[in-house]
Amino acid sequence: MTAAQDKFLPGRITARTDHAPDLWSVRLRVEAPFHFAPGQYATLGLEKHGKLVERAYSIVSSPYEPELEFFFELVPDGQLTPLLHKLQPGDTLSMRKAFKGRFTLDIQSGRTRHLLLATVTGVAPFVSYVRTLYRDWKEGRFPAGHHLYLLEGASRSWEFGYHHELQTLAAEVPWLTYVATVSRPWEDPAWKGETGRVDDLIRKYTDHWQLSAQNATGYLCGHPDMIEHGKGILRRAGFPKENLKEEIYWIPAKPAKTR
Question: Rounded to the nearest 10 degrees, what angle do helices 224-236 and 198-208 cross at?
Answer without folding.
Answer: 30
